[in-house]
Design a protein that fits this description.
Oxidized Rhodanese, domain 1; 3 domains; 19 helices; elongated
C-alpha cells in the first residue's frame, strides 16, 4: 500500500483490508480477461494466443508511464518503492523453473489461484505442487542458499545495463510494445483465420498508443530535477523554524559529540573545497549548498535516524544549505549555530579556567566544559579519531546512479 500508508493517506491499521479489496479486484480482472484458462495462458508459448503478452506489456507500459510522471510531479515519493535486488544465479534458475512450470501446468502462481477458486481441478493440483515446492525450498534452504544469493548484482535496472537513460529506455520499451502488439495480432489472425470483416469491427488502439509515445517523448525534454515532491515543506513552516530554535544545534552539542567520538551526527561542511581541505571538523563531508539536491547525496540524507548538521565559517552558507534540504523534505537537518567562528571563539578565545567560586552553577558548568574541550583539542586527543571518523562517510562518485524506480 506504499506510499499511501507512510504519507498518512490510509490508516496503517486498514492495510490488510485494502490489500484484500485490491486482491479481489485483481482476481476479478484476471478472470474476466480469461486468465483462469490454462489453454489461453499457455497459448503464448505455442503461438496461437498472445493475450498474455499483450496484457503484460499493457500493464508494464501503463505503470511505467504513470510512475515516471507521478514521481516527476511529486505525487509519488519513490523513496517508498522497494527495488528488488538482483541475484543472477537464482534469477536464471528461477526463470527456467517457472518457465517449465508455466508450459507444463498452464498457470503462473497468481492465475493458478484464480483458476483454483473458480473450481478448476488442474489449477488445484498446480497450487498443491507449488506449496510442496515452497516447503522443500524452505526446509532445505541452507542447501540452496549459495545458489539463491549467488552473484549479487545489486538493485540494478535494465537501462543501466544497456547504458541508456531512464527516459530513452521508457520510450524504447513503449515502441517495442506497440510493435509486439501489431505483430502478435497479425500472427493470431493468420493462425485463427480471422476474416477481414471481423478485423474491421475491432476497436482501434492507435490513439492510446500515440498518446503514450507522445507523453514519453515529452518526458525526454523535461528538466532532470523535478521542482517539488510529496515531502516538500511549505515556506511558512521553514520561516517558523528559521526564526525559532528548531533549525539550530548548539556548538556545545557538536563539541560534545566530537569529543566522545559518537556517530550520531553527520557533519556537512558547506564551504568551498579548498577551505574544506585546509581545515574542517573531524568526520565532516564537503557538500556545498548548490549540491544538496544531487541524486548521489540522497542515500546520505535519507538516514533519518542521524542528524545532519550544516556548518560554514558563519551561518549564511549553512542556512542556504539547510533551506534547500528542508524544502526538499529531508528530515533531521540542522544548522550549527554561529558556525566555525563561534565554535573557535568559545574554544580558544573565551574559554578560561572555570571559576569555582562563581555563584551561577550553569555558568560554572559551561566554563568547565569549554575549558576541558579546549584542552582536549589542543592536546591532540582528536588525531586518532579524525582519521577513523573521516572514513565512515564516503562521498559517492559523480557517475553513481541512485536507483529511483523498480520492484515488482
Amino acid at each position: 500500500m506504499a506510499p499511501l500508508i507512510p504519507q498518512g493517506i490510509i490508516n496503517p491499521e486498514l492495510n490488510l483490508f485494502f490489500a484484500l479489496l485490491l486482491g479481489i479486484g485483481f482476481g476479478y480482472v484476471l478472470e474476466q480477461a480469461g486468465f483462469s484458462s490454462a489453454k489461453k495462458l499457455a497459448g503464448v508459448f505455442y503461438g496461437y494466443d498472445f493475450v498474455v503478452l499483450r496484457v503484460f506489456f499493457t500493464a508494464g507500459i501503463t505503470a511505467m508511464t504513470g510512475i515516471l510522471f507521478f514521481s516527476y510531479l511529486g505525487w509519488l515519493d519513490m523513496d517508498f518503492v522497494f527495488v528488488n535486488p538482483t541475484f543472477l544465479y537464482s534469477a536464471i534458475l528461477g526463470g527456467i523453473i517457472m518457465g517449465f512450470g508455466f508450459i507444463m501446468g498452464g498457470y503462473c502462481p497468481g492465475t493458478g489461484i484464480v483458476a483454483a477458486v473458480t473450481g478448476k481441478t488442474d489449477a488445484m493440483v498446480f497450487i498443491i505442487g507449488m506449496f510442496i515446492g515452497i516447503f522443500v525450498f524452505g526446509h532445505f534452504y541452507q542447501s540452496f542458499e549459495s545458489i539463491y544469493t549467488g552473484h549479487f548484482l545489486g538493485n540494478i535496472f535494465v537501462y543501466d545495463s544497456l547504458g541508456m537513460s531512464r527516459a530513452w529506455f521508457a520510450l524504447t520499451l513503449a515502441v517495442v510494445a506497440i510493435m509486439a502488439f501489431t505483430i502478435t495480432q497479425m500472427i493470431e489472425d493468420r493462425i485463427k483465420k480471422v476474416s477481414p470483416e471481423q478485423i474491421k469491427t475491432r476497436p482501434s488502439y492507435m490513439l492510446p498508443s500515440f498518446l503514450v509515445v507522445i507523453a514519453l517523448i515529452v518526458f525526454l525534454f523535461l528538466p532532470e530535477e523535478r521542482r517539488s515532491n510529496i515531502r516538500e515543506a511549505r515556506p511558512p513552516e521553514l520561516l517558523a523554524q528559521v526564526h525559532g530554535e528548531d533549525a539550530y544545534i548548539s556548538t556545545h552539542r557538536v563539541i560534545l559529540e566530537i569529543k566522545h567520538g559518537r556517530d550520531d551526527l553527520i557533519l556537512i561542511d558547506t564551504r568551498d573545497q579548498s577551505e574544506f581541505e585546509r581545515f574542517s571538523l573531524p568526520g565532516a563531508i564537503n557538500i556545498r549548498a548548490d549540491e544538496i539536491l544531487q541524486r548521489r547525496w540522497r542515500p546520505l540524507f535519507k538516514q533519518d535516524h542521524r542528524r545532519k548538521v550544516f556548518f560554514g565559517n558563519g551561518s549564511s552558507s549553512a542556512m542556504q544549505a539547510w533551506l534547500t534540504a528542508a524544502r526538499a523534505g529531508y528530515d533531521n537537518v540542522y544548522i550549527l549555530n554561529g558556525g566555525l567562528n563561534r565554535m573557535f571563539s568559545e574554544l580558544f578565545v573565551e574559554s578560561e579556567m572555570p571559576d569555582t567560586t562563581a555563584y551561577n552553577l550553569q555558568d560554572r558548568s559551561n566554563a568547565r566544559f569549554l575549558y576541558e574541550a579546549r584542552q582536549f583539542f589542543l592536546e591532540g586527543g582528536l588525531v586518532d579519531q579524525e582519521e577513523d571518523r573521516r572514513q565512515r562517510i564516503k562521498a559517492p562518485e559523480e557517475s553513481e546512479i541512485i536507483p529511483v524506480i523498480g520492484g515488482c
